Structure formats: structure tokens, C-alpha cells
Amino acid sequence: MTTAPSQTEPQAQGDILFDIRGVGRYxxxxxxxxxxxxxxxxxxxxGEFTAIxxxxxxxxxxxxxxxxxxxxxxxxxxxxxxxxxxxxxxxELSDFRxxxxxxxxxxxxxxxxxxxxxxxxxxxxxxxxxxxQRRQRVQAMLNTxxxxxxxxxxxxxxxxxxxxxxxxxxxMVSRPSIILADExxxxxxxxxxxALLDMMKGLNESRSMTFVFSTHDPKxxxxxxxxxxxxxxxxxxxxxxx
Amino acid sequence: MLFKLAFRxxxxxxxxxxxxxxxxxxxxxxxxxxxSLSEGSYNNIIDLFTRDHTGHIQxxxxxxxxxxxxxxxxxxxxxxLPPMLLRYHIKAAAPRLYSPALAxxxxxxxxxxxxxxxxxxxxRTTLLAKKVQQGVWLPNQVNEAGYWPAMLGFxxxxxxxxxxxxxxxxxxxxxxxxxxxxxxxxSAIVGTEDSSERMNVYLPLTAMRDFIxxxxxxxxxxxxxxxxxxxxxxxxxxxxxxxHRVPQQPLAVKPWQEVEQGFYNGMQxxxxxxxxxxxxxxxxxxIGVLNTVLMSTLERTREFGVLKAIGTRPGLLFRLIQLEAMxxxxxxxxxxVVLALPVNAYFVHHGIQLSQGFDMGGIRFDRLxxxxxxxxxxxxxxxxxxxxxxxSVFPAWRVARITPINALQAV
Lengths: 242, 411
Ligand SMILES: Nc1ncnc2c1ncn2[C@@H]1O[C@H](COP(=O)(O)OP(=O)(O)O)[C@@H](O)[C@H]1O
Ligand SMILES: [Mg+2]
Prior knowledge:
The complex is a heterodimer. By secondary structure, chain A is α/β, with parallel strands linked by helices. Chain A contains seven helices and eleven strands. Chain A has a seven-stranded mixed sheet, with helices on both faces. Chain A has a four-stranded antiparallel sheet with strand order 3-2-5-6, covered by helices on one side. In chain A, a hairpin with a 2-residue loop joins strand 10 and strand 11 (234-240). Helix content of chain B is 53%, strand content 21%. In chain B, the strands form two sheets. A six-stranded mixed β-barrel of chain B has the order 2-3-8-5-7-6. Chain B has a two-stranded antiparallel sheet with strand order 11-12. The model of chain B has no long low-confidence stretch (mean pLDDT 91).
């Protein structure tokens, strides 16, 4: 077990997916200014299965949002594949998220009026994937997440765990560079949550998909190969495990 | 997919969508019926009015209408009129000659407007022949006693205390400056005490020429065209044609809208009233639509946040919201058409009987009629869809501008 304060060891350039340099995100101004993130320096390598952990309010969501291009840093810069995403326009960011980021949120991830397979298909429509290929990829993804028989169910007809599996399938199917998941298990019971994490871990290993997820559940963080501890917007520990 | 999404979103809140549909359909219905009744009634009024005596188009010597005078007559009418009637598909044409005169009955006298008409052509052009109350429509010949017939307006007959068969004496000044006076026999009494021709005296054109010693020319030609709505254009074309054909005479060809300007302006003002009330109907419907669209977008804020977060462009969301609103508008119009068809059909065939008729330019109207046309059925649909599109711009713009992180925090 290695412990390094707020810095990671240098890695080979080619492996680095995300490069977060001197990033701060401040809300408000003057006396009431809140530093949700302060002086974050991190790199995320391809193929990592990383957990961002810390108490509520420590800045986990804010960090994931900056990485996913949902928010812009107050200072510093975020690079994905050596391209800065901190200062993209609205439409560039839309397309960036569509093509590079897979999102999984805490809950209510899915579009209620679309069936499981339509939810998964939606993002490929945005990408302009041809119909035949879409159908085949949706089918393959449903098998991968173990929901073969549930293609035509609406989200309301699925359990919480099944909904999150569809969310994982939707995030994966667009073949993003990375999947960002903000407390994906927070609304699940611990058995279902652990199963979801095992499935994600399996995808990480079999397809070398990079995952970064946040959690404050010790049982869930056990499964990560790297733990980034946040406290009051700062990285207090960056822990790698065998 | 966008369509599928929009359709399912519309179906999601069935009760609310149904209410919106009903208000849109109701809006369409009200617009359609008020437009139908107004167009139908105006066309009816125009028809009755122009057929009373004006015709659709009138021709005079230029300046006659502003200052009528005995000498302002059109000449060689027989040369240029027949080819023109053919060329412009004129349905009927009535020539007229006017002169003031003093009319005498038993022991009363009154100033009269004497009009020389061609009985056959007048009957084909206007409804005058249908207004004969007593007696027979003007014969075009002298009676056994050698007198020409004359027709009196109702009020004139009352003033002079004359009835059918009585003798009428007219005194006027002939074109040559001589005193014109003659005895006529009353052949008919036309109209009522407040119809337009109440103080008129009608003579056959030949008798009129004899009476005021005017062997040539006429003052007025009233024409009926096939499509009254095109009267303006037709008048314009005939004007150009005659300017070319009869350059030696300055002729003025005018549609009824110009001949009867006061009546026409009054009608236009009335129409504006209709448009204002239609605007108010649409305003109320629009508020309802705005309310629905706003509510349905507000409660889906989180969903739009997800759609945006996973890479949906703002423009696509904008179109989604507009599409949802337009779907409702199209369905609402379909519903409106279904409701409006039978009601409108009834109005077209039966109209609404007014208990108290109203008077316009001396003609009575006692019935509102509907009209079935692309205009009366289509314009309401365009208005409903157009205002929906307009009203949905604001909610669509709001959704397009949602920032995903804020939206994701909304529940
Ligand atoms: N939009 C915002 N405006 C003001 N403060 C915010 C906003 N978003 C987050 N914060 C603050 O930033 C800090 C970190 O929040 P967050 O990233 O949500 O933490 P976590 O996800 O770890 O619970 C908190 O103190 C929170 O109150
Ligand atoms: Mg959080």
C-alpha cells in the first residue's frame, strides 16, 4: 500500500487519459466563497478502475463533473487525450460528452418513455451509427449486462439494480474513452450495489474500459484498484492497490 | 426517434394532453365558425347589395360619379360594349340614363329621380324586377291609349297618392333646353318605404330618350361578373381595355367597392371587429398552451439534464419541445375539423336566423350564413399551429439552455 499526498507518480505519456492540472472550482465570492475543489493535480491512466472517496460535500461530484465536461473549472485545466476541455463551447462540449464520456448517475438515469433497448440505442442515434449496427450493439450490450429478456421494458418496469445496468450499458455502448459514475450504488441495497460493481469491474478487466466512480461506501471502494481520497476539496490520499 | 420521443412524451400526461387538445380543438372550432359566419355573411351581404342596383362593376364617363350631369354620356356604346362583354365573360350588363324631374299625381307633386332602363337587361342584372309589389314589371311598349308605362318607388307612390293604372305626369328640362313634359301610366310599384329606390321613377330607355330629347348615349352601365371576388381586378383590366379600344372617350371603370365606398368601408370596419375577437380567442388558447408546455417541461428538467449530459445538443432539445407542442396542435386541429364540419355545414345550408334583422345601405339582412372554403377551414388551422409554434419558443429555449448539472440536481 502506497500513500502519496496530492500527487501521483509520473507515468508513461501514452497511458495518460485525463490530466488534471491545478484545478480549482470556487462557488460564490468574498467571505462566503466555497472552494468545492482546490488545487487538484491528478492523472488518470487508461484502464484504471478508480474510486473517488470522501465524505459528503468533499467535492466528489464536482470533480466528476469537471472531468465530464459538465462544468468548467475556476482555475486550472483538464486535458483528455492532450486536448483541453476546460474552455470548449456549449456545442463542442455536447459532442465531446457524446463521443468520449459515458455517464452513470446516482438515480433516474434513464428516459422514462423509452424502453431499455431504446435508452441504450439513443446515444448511438446521436452519433449517427447505422441502424443495423445499432441493433446488433444494443443486443450485445444487453447480454453483457445480463438483461437479455428485458429489452422492451420501460425503466418503471425494472428494478433499481436493473435500471443501473441499463445505465451502464448505455454508457458503454457509445464506446467512450472513460465512464464516469457518480455514486452509482447510492440508491441500491448493498447486495445489488456490490453486484453492479462486480459487473463494472468485469467490464474493466475484459474490455479494459476505464472507470472512475465516486462512493462513500467502504464495501464498494474495496473493489477499486485505486482510491483517491478527497476532503474539503483537496486530495488527501492517493492509494493504489495490488 | 425524435418523433417517437415527442409522441410518447405527449401520451405520458394523457389527461393534460387531452385538456390541451380540447382547448386547441375548441379554439379551432370557434375560429372556424366565426370566420365562416363572417365570410359567409359578408359574401351574402355583398351579393344582395351588389344585386340590388349597383352591380359588381360600373362604367361611366370619367367624373360622372363625382358630379353627375346630363351631358356626361357614353357614346357609341353598341360598338364597344358587345365585344367587351364577350371578352371579359360579363354575365349581364344594364344601361341607365338619369334625369331629375318633377312628378305629379292627382293633386300632389314631388321631386323625383327618373331612370331610364332597358327592362330586359335590368331584370337580368339586378333584383329590381323581384321587388315589384303591385302591378307588372315595366313593359317595353306603349299601352292601348298610347302612353308609356312608368314604375314608381313605394314612397313616391305614397307621396303622390298613385296606384297601378293611374296617370303620372313628369316635367323636366330637355337636353335641347325645351320643357319636357309627358303623361305616363303607372305599371308597377316597387320596393318598400325604406328600400333604396323608394323615391325613384323608372321608364323604359326609349321612353326616357323621347321624354328628355336625348337620342344618344347613356350615363351608366352596371355589370355582373362571374367571380364577384375578382371585381377589382376585372375592373382594372376592363379599364385598360377600354382606354385602348375607345381612346376618344375618357371612361371610368370602377368596382362596387369604389362606387359604394361608404358601404364598403363600413363593412371593412366590421370585419376588423371579427378579427379582433378572433385574436382574443387565440390569445386565450395560447395562454393555455403555454401553460401546458411550460409545466410539461418544468417537471422534466432532470430528464433534460440527463439528455444533455449524455451529449444531446441544445438545438435538438429545442426541436423536441416544439415538436411535442406541434403534435398537440395538429391533433387539436384534426379534432377541431371533426367538430367544425357538421356545425359549419349547418351554417352553410341554414344559417342563423336573426330575430332582429339589420339594415345595411338600405338593404335588410336577417340571416347569418356560413361559408365552407379553404379559407374558412384552413386559416384557423394555420392560426392554431402558428400560435402554438410561437408560444412554445420560450419553453423550448429554456430547455435548450438548461445546464445539465443544475438540471440533474432538480428532482
Ligand atoms: N452549485 C453550487 N453552488 C454552491 N456550492 C456548491 C455548488 N455545488 C457544490 N457546491 C459545494 O461544493 C462542495 C462540494 O460539493 P460536491 O462536489 O457535491 O460534494 P460531494 O459530491 O462529495 O458530496 C460542497 O460544499 C457543496 O456545498
Ligand atoms: Mg455528490
